[in-house]
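Hi support team,

I'm opening this ticket because the web form for multi-chain structure prediction keeps timing out on my end. I have pasted the exact lines I submitted so you can reproduce it. The total is 505 residues across two entries, so I didn't expect it to be a heavy job. Is there a limit I'm missing, or should I split the entries? Thanks in advance, R.K.
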Amino acid sequence: MPADPVKELAAALGAAAGAELELERPGEPEHGDYATNVALRLAGARRQPPREIAAELAEAVTELEVVERAEPAGPGFVNVFLRDEWFASALAGILEDGDAYGGGGVAGQERVQVEMVSANPTGPILVSHARNGAYGDAVARLFELAGHAVEREYYYNDSGGQMDRFRASVEAVRRGEEPSEDGYHGAYVRDLAALKGDPVPLMLKEMEGTLERFRIHFDTWRRQSELEERLPELLPRLDTYEKDGALWARSSAYGDEEDRVLLRSGDRSPTYRAADVPYLVDKLERGFDRAIYVLGADHHGTRNWYAAVARMLGYDPERVEVLVYQPVHLTRGGEQTKMSKRRGDVVFLDEFMDEIGVDAARWYLANRGPDQAIDIDVDLAAERSQKNPVYYVQYAHARIAGILRNAGDAAVSAVPAGPLAAEERELVKRLAELPAVAADALVKRGPQGVPNYAIRVADDFHRFYHEHRVLESDQQAFRLALCRATRAVIARCLDLVGVDAPERM
RNA sequence: GCGCCCGUAGCUCAGUGGACAGAGCGGCGGACUUCUAAUCCGCGGGUCGGAGGUUCGAAUCCUCCCGGGCGCACCA
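Hello R.K., no limit was hit. The queue was backed up. Here is the completed structure from your submission:
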């Protein structure tokens, strides 16, 4: 069972107090190391003034060895002050966990598939797709840290109207003609025309290269045309009806907003929605306990469609999950850049990474909650890159790496040689938050909590560093232990959002 | 019209029931013979869009209103 020092403390305090309680970190130092509002919660049921309950709980809790003192405060909080022994054992637990720290604690392991990006291969990966990937990949990494088995999948269309226009555009250039008005016109179309063969696999290869550079690795790639072969077998299993010469799914009866067309009137060709059906079956038949779709807000209208299909086919809709995120707006010199695939002025992810770097790109796109639209001034992001929080956090990591290099094989111990300083205690408490931060980010499907926490860790470390020497201090062994744990926590946080943890800067 | 998302410091945003609301950037002023100054310390900056309601307690939950974004295809 991986360490969670705060949870363990809460359990111990709760046992002593005879009530389940949660701990929070008060904003004011006078309010103790941790505080609980449990007395306020109990007041109603016990018909007793919260201050009175708080006083009783404080007394009970003081019996614990790690508690120096506890006191009732405010409207009915219990403020808890801890002895150095607690900080030592918390630090020891963190170090023992090593790479596993921050994760675990899940009841059962799930097989999870995160399908993301899934942009059709009609052009290079754009910054808008990158947010999809940065978000989906961060969620995937949170699942992995928690102990689940995750596969990342890319689904793409290789047939249909859009792809026909794309191929025709490349063919036109190869014949020395201009692509048609509704075709594709970017410089990349000319690059593809210079190569031989079907441009679709060539385009995909390039997209995969961009995504690898963005540090997203896909385990599997799924083609729409291949999945469509199962349509004749699967469509009869759906609840459908004929209207206006088309075949409709009665999805509104299964939780969707509306019914969807599966086969067009006229040529009876399958729609994109039809292809969703064999694809969903394919996912569930492959045994994923949870199939996650990552969709941009412009597709949020279909967020209930997937679970509706699952219901229609008799699968548990709980296995299907849709994550929606808001768009990215890039500005350059204050002017908004439109991100349409067919225009020449689109922002490619590769260009974006060229300008601000992979680390800053991943950071910026994971740093905001999925419900928040992201505004990035590219000029500012590149120009002021030295002041980006991502470098602030990386710098803390590099500083620690430097200290540990200089320390060589000096002794390391979580047991302090003397009384702990305020900065040391604050840092340990901060490190102890990681399991809760990671668990919360996973539950909310909101990875932004991780980079925000990483800034706090770096903050506490830089302050500690400024006040105290590590090497050749009378607390060297303890401080080396603190450095090791801090480095591990920062590295973990950076990794969760796909950012490198540098040894030097 | 209906649905989803957003509205918090000059700017970009954290913060989904707790104590006087936070960070970065920007502004002003300080700190390097010291393990990395890409750092640290201080100052200034807010009717948390508005109005009601629930609660011992609301930026956070509920209702309504205002403002902005995105959807409401036999495109994907």
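A quick check on our side: Chain A has three domains: 5-82, 111-157+212-383, 388-496. Let us know if the file doesn't open in your viewer.
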